[in-house]
Amino acid sequence: MKLANFIRVFALLCCIAPASASGQTQDTLHTDRPLFTSGDLWLAGGFVAASAIAAPLDEWLMKELQAESRQSNRFLQNLATGARVWGNPGTLIAGGGLYLVGTATGNRRVQDLGLHSGGAVILANVVTVGMKVITGRARPYADSSDARNFQMLRGASAGEYRSFPSGHSTAAFAFASVVTAETSHWWPGARWPVGLLTYGTAALTGASRIYNHDHWATDVVVGAAIGTITGLKLFRYQHSHPDNRIDNTFLRAGLQSTGGKWNVLLAVVPR
What we know:
Layout: H1 2-24, H2 39-54, H3 58-65, H4 68-71, H5 74-105, H6 108-135, H7 167-186, H8 191-211, H9 217-240, H10 245-250, E1 255-258, E2 261-264
Antiparallel strand pairs: 1-2
């Protein structure tokens, strides 16, 4: 029964957010829409449900993944390493790489994707780092016997007390939310394939943090919530306010000066 619950948590992490993105990305690229909508309640409710399922499984799941047979499995070791690296620094490298490619090729949409995905990772992790310091939760390797070991502001003094939430999970889900939302505008039919790929990879990143004895399951779920919600809100704000200072400063691909004015060129990606 507990294993079935764990599978449900994993499925929720993979599917709740891309499904909610359909309600987040119905507007055009530049449309004045509310930052918060009724769809946010479904998204938040899904993460609350996932957290409720994960909480009683924290210690059990940790013991299961720390079993010698799983820790000595070469495939699981390599998968966990790759997923961890993707969370940090992989997502920032990917966002920066997309931005540079878009800038070099004059493709504004690729540049936009890189800027917004990298920005979401940074912004979401600012929130996560603040929570880590405030909540002071002990990492599993510091105290594997008590998943409820919290102490206010203890995270400011030592890294082993910065377990809650997971920063790698935050980054991976922030990247996934922006990439899925952005590409859904270009190719609406790609929402589910792209969403399942990016959110599935993010879920593996979260699982790797439990496997590596660095986080509890609830750390991962809450990190996923922060990353997903931050990414979607950043996406909605920036595309509802195309004249915002960050975009005006850094999004110059696909623009040329004619008669002292900037004109938008056609992007390589078809509309």
